[in-house]
Fold:
Amino acid sequence: MTKLFKALVASTLVALVASGCASGPQYKEVASSIPTLKETQGRIYFYRSNSMFGAALQPSINLNGAPVGKSQPGGFFYVDEPAGQYVVSTATETEKTVSFKLDAGETKYVKTSVGFGLLVGRIVPSLESADEAVKNLEDLHYVAAQTTAAVKKAD
Amino acid sequence: MIIRAVLTSAFAALMLSACAPSIPVQSTQLVPITATQQRFQVVGSVTVRLTSGYSREVRAGSLWQPVGTITQGTVLRPVSGVFTIEGRQIHEAYLVTKASTLVGFFLPGESHFSPLDPPQSITIERIND
Structure:
């Protein structure tokens, strides 16, 4: 019985790892090919650390209400947007948002991480400094953004 | 005993994150100042306790640049890094100071002012590069 239980746990874990984590090229492999910004735009990076805690939670990330990608453990992506005011949200148990201003030529970094929820976990976005974010990005894997058309102004 | 303490603090953290009140905001209009290289340094750390229950530290030595004024005071943006305040939601925030007092925060992502209650003393000095 114990053996069966261990096998079940192990196979569940393997399946979770196989399906849950980002698997694209690492940041250090694609960094040199990331295009320079257009004059009127800023860039927003979204990333999530490679932790198995809450790995099954992979909600959409919304920028001013429009989905731009998914929060995946160990993954990152970026979108280039016009300068303006933005709100990032994720679709989980409760909605926690982060609002910020993006200037032309500026790069902002939004980290998503797993937080405790009353019933299930939730994914919480936070604004990070460039120093901290670049350190974290090094080992993360690139996942394509869904769209870069989130130009709706924040309410 | 330790388990009980851990559970209690975890529960408190859960309640704070799940049920924190929104931070108070007021509409405001930022009057930008012309591009300046002027910078200010915070002399002593200031720990701010927000009405939402969260706290933030304005670190000693951190550099800030004036970007404009609002009715409540001068708006200072961090030179490097980001500063946020948190309630039910998280907001990028710039400091608003008036006569050596931190009176609140300007939220650039929303063009709102969030007052600090009570205002706190803050010492900043101009940096000459």
Notes: Chain A has one domain: 22-142. The radius of gyration of chain A is 17 Å.
